[in-house]
Write a structure and sequence with these properties.
This protein is of the alpha+beta class. It has seven helices and twelve strands. Strands 1, 2, 3, 4, 5, 6, 7, 8, 9, 10, 11 and 12 form a twelve-stranded mixed β-sheet that branches.
């Protein structure tokens, strides 16, 4: 059964993969686990159970040394956050954890969904982060030990109109229980509520599950961290609310 703890682990593995695929690093400081993502000059603190000044201070100092322009923290809603708030962290949009079996699309979107990392339109940090979908294919170059959870399979899907215009993208990473953790789903504002997002979910699910013997009734469970604006979308695609978490930003 998918739990909030399981969903938190899936998000942790994603942030670790993004860090290592873009030339960053992972480090710990007295009970605090950090992921440095240089493509966006972002330092991420990942679900500390009991964050204390002894762990926060050296971690933030390392972030300053690395040139972090953004420092954020993901925290379980039940974990104490007093030391984080004292260090200058405050809440951003509330996060809700969703999980469930992917619901078949009611109507097919008239476009194409493809897996792969060839996106000529991608620039800057977006282009660099595409490498996260190649991390699991080259574990030696990743600089991680064999079996590290960040090396679980990741795929990226794009949605294009029949004319070839890029209108959406999303990533999925395999979780330990066979679920697919969805990350970075984005759709052009002009085409939201037209089925593009659902097409991306279905494209990723069908592309990452062995197609032999797979029919439309096959159950595929997804996990996602939703913002208030995206929660209705995930619910409409068959995912239920697991609970809520906290996403903090260093001001």
């Amino acid at each position: 059964m998918t739990t909030i703890s399981f969903a938190q682990e899936a998000l942790t593995h994603w942030h670790q993969a993004v860090a290592m695929s873009t030339g960053g690093k992972l480090f710990t400081t007295h009970g605090c686990s950090w992921a440095w993502q240089p493509a966006r000059a972002r330092l991420v603190l990942l679900f500390p159970a009991h964050a204390q000044e002894a762990g926060l201070r050296p971690g933030l100092a390392e972030g300053t040394r690395l040139g972090a322009r953004r420092v954020e923290a993901w925290v379980n809603s039940g974990a104490p956050s007093g030391p984080l708030e004292s260090a200058g962290f405050s809440d951003t949009s509330q996060i809700s954890w969703h999980a469930g079996e992917l619901r078949p699309r009611a109507e097919a979107w008239e476009g194409r969904v493809r897996l792969g990392t060839e996106i000529p339109e991608a620039k800057g940090a977006d282009a660099r982060e595409l490498q996260v979908a190649n991390l699991w294919r080259d574990p030696v170059a990743a600089g991680l030990s064999a079996g590290h959870p960040a090396l679980r399979r990741i795929e990226q899907a794009t949605a294009r109109t029949m004319e070839g215009d890029l209108v959406g993208r999303a990533f999925a990473q395999q979780a330990f229980g066979g679920q697919l953790a969805i990350h970075g789903l984005a759709v052009s504002p002009s085409l939201r509520r037209h089925g593009v997002g659902s097409a991306l979910l279905n494209g990723l699910a069908r592309g990452m599950v062995n197609p032999l013997g797979l029919d439309e009734d096959t159950e595929i469970e997804l996990i996602a961290a939703a913002t208030p604006g995206s929660a209705p979308f995930f619910e409409a695609n068959g995912m239920r609310l697991l609970g809520r978490g906290r996403h903090l930003l260093l001001r």
